[in-house]
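Supplementary Methods, section 5.1.

A reviewer requested that the exact input to the structure prediction be made available. We therefore reproduce it here, unchanged from the version used in the analyses.
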Amino acid sequence: MNEDEIIKRKVSLSDIIHILNRPYPVKRIRISQGAFNFLPKKALSTLNKMNIKIEVIKLKRGPKTKVNQDNIFMLYKSDLSAYEISKKLKIPLRTVYYHISKIKKEEKNKEIY
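The structure derived from this sequence is encoded cell-by-cell as follows.
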C-alpha cells in the first residue's frame, strides 16, 4: 500500500491521529509549507518519536493556467505585438502582457546568474 500521506491544508492533532489510524503504516508525511506552519508542536514531536518523516513540499498556488506560455514566448520572439498574439491565441490582451512581463523577468534573472 501507499506509505506516504500528502497534506495540503491546515491540520489539527485529531487529523494527525486519523492519518496514523490508517490500515497501512505511514512512514512519511508530505505537507505543504502553509500547512506545516500551522502544524501543532505536539504533533511534530509525536511524529518524530514514531520515526515518521515529515517532508515539506512547495506547491504552486492558484489554478493552473490555461495558456501555454511557450506559445506566447515563441510568438513574442518572432516580433509579433501583444495585440497580434492575443488575437492569434484568442486570449485577453492583459494575459499576454502578463506573460510577456514574466518572460522578461526570467530573462533578466538568467542574465544576472
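Helices lie at 13-20, 33-37, 41-49, 69-77, 82-89, 93-112. These observations are discussed further in the main text.
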